[in-house]
Amino acid sequence: MDKHTMSTRRYTGLIAPKPEERSDNGELLYPYLPSPELVEAVNLACDLERPLLLKGEPGCGKTRLAQAVAYELRLPYQAWYVKSTSRARDGLYTYHGLARLHDLQLAQGGILTEEERQKARDPLASAYIEYGPLGNAFQSPQQMVVLIDEIDKADIDFPNDLLLELDETRFFIEETRPRSEVRAQVRPLVFITSNDEKDLPDAFLRRCLFHYIRFPSQADLVKIVRAHFPDSLEDTVLAVVVRFLELRHEMEERGAVKKVSTSELLDWWRALRQFGEEEIRSRLKGQLAFPATLLKSWDDFREFYQPIPSPEKK
Amino acid sequence: MSTEYLPLHRLFSRLRMAGMPLGIADYLLVLRSFQLGYGLENLAALSRLCRCLWVKSAADQEILDYHFGELFNQSSASRADEDLSLPEANMQIQSSGIAAVEEPVLPAPVPEGGQFEQTDTMNAEPGAEVSTETSGAALPPSAESLESGLNLVGIDEIQLAQAIHAVAVDQDTVYPTWYKPTDYHPVKLREMKQSWRHLRRTIRAGPQQELDVEATVRRIERDGLFLDPALTPARTNKSSLLMLLDQRGSMSPFHDLTRRLADSAIRGGRLQRTQVYHFYNCPYEHLFRTASLSQPVPVEAVLARYPSYMTLIVSDGGAARGRWNRDRIEATRDFITQLRRLSYRAVWLNPVPHMRWSGTSAGDIAAIIPMFDISRRGLDDAIDVLKGKPHLRWQPDLE
């Protein structure tokens, strides 16, 4: 069998983790319910071997798609959470020059064992190179899923610095003598998310496919809540979702600092479900129950939350 | 057997003319997707495919939707769910693919007796008559060249196209006889963003994070041992920009332009901080936070709050109406003096071309502060001056 296999299965979005199933690092896994357009975009990106750029409101599931795809296609998964100080090289490798300099100094002092001395003197410096998510993906014999999260947080040059690596899936390690090259054996599946805070350079955008994740419909929201909480009653969830969508609609009309999205709905349900059905329905009327899960700024509180009127004296 | 004709190349060229940065590789990518089986079921699938491959932003989306709707118009709305049968589609794609590879400028070959009503002979030779059946689909050829000559971008391209279309249907004229004031775009949005990227002032500031190799080597030399690395702060872009925009009155026609300038500076991402304030006619006593001239802030407060910001003033300075007003000049002069005391560097951008400055207040103001017109060159020169390049004062006889 060919050692370097690309996944030939297609992503359907229908294979979900079982309840209480956990990922490798112990997190609970929940089902991810993509729209048919998103499934098509994922498969197109796989077939055309291009990264998929995802945009959408915060809280609509951009970041979680990559893990869901990795789960269904049973591929290893690496995530790179970009910071404002990130450099493109961090995702490829980090060269620990100071550690090496330190070890060389100790070697001169005659303190190290022979093995440690060899390690420090190695011209390929393999002991001092730590690979980042993309570096790991390039070296893996099996196809990996790589997520580059919030790429617009970094400096504007950052996406341009990754062009060669994304196109030709190779990079150079500059610090070794001679310069060594790392070439991917299998092209990884790359998912990139952006919050659209800054515009990305054109040269980078041209290499990616693009999909905008729309806010789910009412029926989809009910499905999402029930997928996270399988023991919930459909009618109750529907009533909660309807109230939620009313709030969201109000926020769109009157303008809000942060519109409520899917993650707020899930938090709200998590708070509400501790009560019985009757209690939940009564709490949906009148003022907003558990506003702390939904309203994330003082302006939104003032605009959309009516405080409990003080009880009248009997 | 019906020969379905897919005006894909036509769509592609229209999108390119509308300013979307598409290349031949993008066209070939769509063809490759067809071969893999995507986008062939119906028009909606084709639209989704084009969106996934060619669209990168909301503005691009609207351009695509508009042109897609134009080319696959209402007469074939009923065809939206019809299958484009696979073998024929492949045949056409092969031939259009070859046409694209050999001569990217030529359109896809026109089939004979095609049932697709959008068969337009427009591309074959310029000056061919507008076929009356294709009233929804085609723009007259002279209008197309007009479009590209005007360098329009984004949504406004759609508006102009609609205006041309509305006029052309009458068959009387093929070009619009009037322009809406919002159609004035001397600099494309992309060009603006590129210019802003040059406005950089990277200095090392902040916490000491990066290794300073030279200093470390010197330290080793001095001490004879390597004990501690020497660190230095990382480079950050310290350029901060204060934009003052003239609103209303003679600047009303340029609102779109100034808004684009401000948006591209803020979203371009290079500048560390951009602050935008507005004024009416002349920055006198108060500046306003919003374009509708509400929320006034005293001028001294603004300048004190943002010291050492680079300042950019956008105003016609009286050149739009051709007026010379001593009071306006004096008030502006006072403001600029105040500005110079606190601000790092200041330049003035004038939407009216420099040929119209002499004899107006703008001409006198140009003698006090570097003034540039809003063109690609003018914007680049203004940014150079903000970065420190010395500037020769504008004089009327230098025309």
The helical percent of chain A reads 40-55%
Number of β-strand runs of chain A: 9
**Helix percentage range of chain B:** 40-55%
Radius of gyration computed on alpha carbons of chain B: 28 Å
Strand order of the largest sheet of chain B: 4-3-7-8-9
Radius of gyration of chain A: 25 Å
Count interface residues per chain for the largest interface. A-B, 26 and 32 residues
Structural class of chain A: alpha/beta
Strand order in the largest sheet of chain A: 2-5-8-1-9
Tally of helical segments of chain B: 14
Mean pLDDT of chain B: 71
**Sheet with most strands of chain B:** 5 strands, parallel
Shape of chain A: elongated
The residue ranges of chain B in which pLDDT falls below 50 over 5 or more consecutive positions are 74-155, 166-177
Q: What is the count of DSSP helices of chain A, taking H or I runs of 4+ residues?
A: 14
Number of strands of chain B: 9
First-last Cα distance of chain A: 82 Å
Secondary structure category of chain B: alpha/beta
Oligomer state of the chains in this structure: heterodimer
Mean pLDDT across residues of chain A: 85
**Helix-strand sequence of chain B:** HHHHHHHHEHEEHEEEHEHEHEH
In summary, what is this structure?
Chain A has 314 residues and is an alpha/beta fold.
Topology:
The complex is a heterodimer of chains A (314) and B (399).
Chain A: H1 36-48, E1 52-56, H2 62-73, E2 77-81, H3 88-92, E3 93-95, H4 97-108, H5 114-121, E4 129-131, H6 133-139, E5 145-149, H7 157-161, H8 163-168, E6 170-173, E7 180-183, E8 189-194, H9 202-205, E9 209-213, H10 218-228, H11 234-254, H12 262-272, H13 277-284, H14 298-304
Parallel strand pairs in A: 1-8, 1-9, 2-5, 5-8
Antiparallel strand pairs in A: 3-4, 6-7
Chain B: H1 8-17, H2 24-36, H3 43-54, H4 58-71, H5 86-102, H6 141-150, H7 155-169, H8 189-197, E1 202-211, H9 213-223, E2 231-237, E3 240-246, H10 255-267, E4 273-279, E5 286-288, E6 296-298, H11 299-305, E7 310-314, H12 326-342, E8 345-350, H13 361-368, E9 371-373, H14 376-387
Parallel strand pairs in B: 3-4, 3-7, 7-8, 8-9
Antiparallel strand pairs in B: 1-2, 5-6
Helix pairs in contact in B: 1-4, 2-3, 2-5, 3-4, 8-10, 8-14, 12-13
